[in-house]
Specification:
This protein has about 475 residues and is an alpha/beta fold. The protein has 2 domains: about 140 residues, Rossmann fold; about 270 residues, TIM Barrel. It is built from 17 helices and 12 strands. The strands form 2 sheets. Strands 2-1-3-4-5-6 form a 6-stranded parallel β-sheet, with helices on both faces. Strands 7-8-9-10-11-12 form a 6-stranded parallel β-sheet. The longest helix has 20 residues. The N terminus is likely disordered. Bound molecules: cobalamin and iron/sulfur cluster (SF4).
């Protein structure tokens, strides 16, 4: 699929906001994603950008927008950046190499321009960014109550800014999705989003809650994202109905929350209202944990059956208790098994009743430091016990922000750098990991060994071969 437009030839002239300042919000990501064929996840839109541009627009601060994903190649970038006074970016760690390159290019073409940054990487690795002189402002933490003042009068702030957030997501304005970049691709239902195999297009991605309270050492986002209240059930349904009415008909929904299956009273209200008040009971993808599925089996079943939660993302991570302990997952291999059997049973039941059965989106991590081959075999056995599953398997990556990530970075073992985080699913992310073993495992070389631990008809290696994802 090619773009309708030839990007980069004639960059539009920079527009000034009402205060005369020319500001560019740069959407990050790999060049070419909005031009050439690319994975749907890479094409999804950035809620941080959408929310903050909505807030700015509502306060009369206009920003131009360009997406790195619309570049055919990096040589086109200087003319896209030339003539601006400010460059604004939401930087997550996996976008850091792009932001670094963009900031350098911006300064080359606008030596007096200011680079104003915020986002997850600015929150968890500000020290790394402070060493780069091209970053003029580095805002750690949430930006919703800081962004307007910061871009209006940056000189009033120190270089390192502490962002101020809302108490609750309920206080965020409804994001104007037309402020997202428009890839102008035939198969991109802008301002809605493309499907990725979870449910029919167009997809609406929404956020109902922020911050998962658990402390898994490869994630533990609650240590760096301030806790905040959840959006009300009514707000979520109103937003979906609005999107369906204005840009739909919607095909399906993705709930981006790191942990959707939390706060039983909220979930109970969702079970009660979503089937009644939503214009359609759109199927949706959302995340849970195996221990809470075990703890609240009836609530889980009600959500699956009554609200059409048909792709259940669970961070199983491993089938080995040793590795689950290393990860401080606070779930056991038994919790995982019980959750698997519960959904297998619900799915069988629904199939017998002529309904579409739900599937797992099973998040699995391989290459965790300390993992032994037998642990990885247990993990693959666990995966094979799932009757209906979309495997999401990745090699562990030491992200800054997470406890384990910080530790491995400090020990000099991370292979992720500001020039090159990772581009491909099977990139090597950590020293001391036998990636050859894992590549062989993923190619099915150890399937005989794995199937030995399973009774009956074990699925083949096609279940996971080719299912490694970028992480
Ligand atoms: C949605 C999501 C995705 C989507 C992204 C879609 C997209 N294009 O945005 C998908 C599914 C594709 C994805 C993939 C991955 N993700 Co992700 N994802 C999330 C999630 C759950 C929500 C992000 C979000 O929309 N937040 C809401 C918005 C409003 O927040 P925000 O963007 O951070 O913006 C706020 C502030 O940062 C700040 N801010 C932002 N920009 C600016 C700019 C300025 C100037 C200022 C002042 C402030 C400011 O203000 C905003 C409002 O408060 C977060 C977890 C979380 N709770 O945030 C993880 C998260 C961002 N993902 C993460 C990771 C690691 C990944 C993956 C590697 C796999 C994985 N382990 O999940 C892949 C990588 C993909 C790739 N290689 O490209 C990590 C990033 C860690 C880090 N150090 O950056 C997070 C934090 C999860 C975690 N706990 O580990 N992800
Ligand atoms: S991995 Fe999942 S359960 Fe663990 S802290 Fe992160 S979002 Fe929460």
């Amino acid at each position: 699929m090619r773009s309708f437009f030839s990007f980069g030839k004639n960059a539009p002239a920079p527009k000034a906001s009402s205060d005369g300042i020319k500001r560019l919000w740069l959407d990050l990501g790999e060049a070419g994603i909005f031009v050439y064929p690319a994975g749907a996840h890479d094409r999804w839109q950035d809620h941080g950008l959408g929310l903050l541009r909505t807030i700015l627009r509502d306060k009369g601060v206009e920003t131009d927008l360009f997406s790195l994903r619309s570049l055919k190649n990096w040589e086109e970038l200087p003319k896209r950046l030339a003539g601006y006074d400010q460059l604004i970016m939401n930087i997550r760690s996996y976008w850091y190499p792009f932001a670094y390159k963009a900031a350098q290019t911006f300064k080359q073409v606008n030596p007096n321009g200011l680079v104003i940054t915020g986002g997850m990487h600015a929150t968890v690795a500000p020290h790394e960014m402070e060493n780069v002189p091209e970053f003029d402002y580095i805002c750690s933490g949430p930006g919703e109550n800081t962004i307007v003042d910061l871009v209006r009068d940056p000189k009033a702030f120190p270089r390192k800014v502490l962002g101020i957030g809302a108490k609750s997501i309920a206080d965020w304005p409804m994001m104007d999705r037309t402020l997202w970049p428009n890839p102008k691709l035939k198969d991109f239902p802008w301002p809605l989003e493309p499907e990725c195999g979870w449910g029919p297009a167009p997809v609406a991605t929404v956020i109902t809650s922020r911050v998962c309270p658990w402390q898994c050492v490869f994630c533990n986002e609650s240590s760096y994202i301030p806790n905040m209240g959840r959006k009300s059930v009514d707000q979520v349904i109103d937003e979906l109905n609005f999107l369906d009415e204005h840009y739909g008909p919607l095909g399906s929904v993705v709930i981006h929350d790191s942990m959707f299956f939390q706060h039983p009273p909220w979930l109970t209200e969702w079970v009660e209202k979503y089937p009644r008040k939503a214009r359609r009971r759109w199927p949706y993808w959302a995340a849970g944990r195996s221990d809470t599925v075990r703890q609240w089996p009836e609530l889980f079943e009600a959500l699956v059956r009554e609200t059409n939660w048909n792709i259940i993302s669970i961070g199983f991570e491993s089938g080995s208790d040793r590795v689950l302990k290393i990860l401080n997952k606070e779930c056991t291999a038994e919790d995982n098994l019980i959750a698997i059997e519960h959904l297998n049973r619900i799915g069988d039941d629904m199939e017998r009743a002529g309904q579409d059965p739900p599937s797992f989106w099973a998040n699995i991590m391989l290459g965790v430091p300390g993992e032994r081959p037998e642990d990885a075999f247990e993990t693959m056995r666990m995966l094979k016990r799932m009757k209906r599953v979309l495997p999401s398997i990745s090699y562990y990556a030491p992200y800054p922000g997470s406890l384990l990530g910080y530790q491995l970075i400090a020990e000099g073992k991370s292979l992720m750098s500001k020039e090159n985080y990772h581009r491909y699913p099977n990139d090597e992310k950590l020293m001391g990991i036998d990636y050859k073993f894992y590549n062989d495992l993923m190619a099915g070389k150890y399937d005989g060994e794995i199937n030995k631990g399973l009774n009956g008809n074990a699925k083949g290696a096609e279940l996971y071969a080719g299912h490694l994802i970028k992480a």
